[in-house]
Design a protein that fits this description.
The structure is a single chain. By secondary structure, the protein is an alpha/beta fold. 49% of the residues lie in helices and 17% in strands. It is built from eleven helices and ten strands. Strands 1-2-3-5-7-10 form a six-stranded mixed sheet, sandwiched between helices.
């Protein structure tokens, strides 16, 4: 499935995937999730593509879900577009490189936890405000985040939904580097992706598989468990009130 807000470009064995909805801070709709999944599946099957770079347009990587679109057709199970996208991320065997050009919220941070190399623009803000909206972590973030940065910091980010900066993310070991601006950040990511594309493909895939071998099954189970709780919480009074308030605030 295609969506005009998801742009793809091939170069030197690298598939560049850009979330392009800058007027909405690259908020993700169901159609955009489906298009992202299709792009990853294309890259997985194409032997000429050796790496993928994920980035955004304007001043945002992605602000997360388009809440109005999300509430109009909330996820109901593994066949829902958002869960299909998360499955594609989890199963992707080739290197995933992220160029975080600006704001990253919710699933915008969750998807980074599945990437192999991450570069962010100086001063970029990231946040995982699931609990603030009456929801729970998703996409394996309750497993991956504490493993990457330790429980105390992960608890602050997930239980309080506190925003953090690219500079903090680098200090904590969550990202690999920082670019001076969006263009520099993208170039950092592309340089690394091109280098990965020149590496022996089978060896790169095997190395990635070995790096992730201790989390593969646990991650699949965690994503499924989080997904079930997430769907349940969508109908809770707290989530309904918080999400409606969020939508109304956006409209004013």
């Amino acid at each position: 499935m295609s969506a005009p807000e998801i742009l793809t470009e091939r170069e030197e064995g690298v598939l560049r995937v850009r979330i392009h909805r800058p007027d909405k801070k690259n908020a993700l709709t169901l159609a955009m999730y489906a298009a992202l999944t299709a792009a990853l599946n294309e890259a997985a099957q194409d032997v000429a593509l050796r790496a993928v770079v994920l980035t955004g347009s304007g001043d945002s990587f992605t602000s997360g879900n388009d809440i109005a679109d999300f509430l109009a057709a909330p996820p109901t199970g593994e066949d829902s577009p958002v869960f299909q996208f998360l499955a594609a991320l989890r199963q992707f065997e080739k290197p995933l490189v992220a160029a975080v050009n600006g704001l990253a919220v919710g699933i915008g941070v969750t998807m980074l936890l599945h990437c192999d190399l991450i570069y962010a623009r100086a001063g970029a803000t990231l946040a995982m405000p699931f609990v603030n909206l009456g929801l729970c972590p998703e996409g394996g973030s309750s497993l991956l985040l504490p493993r990457l940065i330790g429980y105390p910091r992960a608890a602050e980010l997930l239980l309080l939904g506190e925003p953090f900066s690219a500079e903090q993310a680098l200090e904590w070991g969550l990202i690999n580097g920082i670019g001076a601006d969006a263009d520099a950040t993208l170039e950092l990511a592309l340089v690394r992706a091109r280098r990965l594309a020149r590496q022996p493909a089978a060896a790169v895939r095997l190395a990635k598989r070995l790096l992730k071998r201790n989390e593969t099954e646990t991650l699949r189970e965690t994503i499924a468990l989080e997904g079930r709780h997430f769907i349940e919480l969508l109908n809770s009074p707290e989530a309904v009130a918080a999400l409606r308030t969020f939508v109304e605030r956006r409209r004013t």
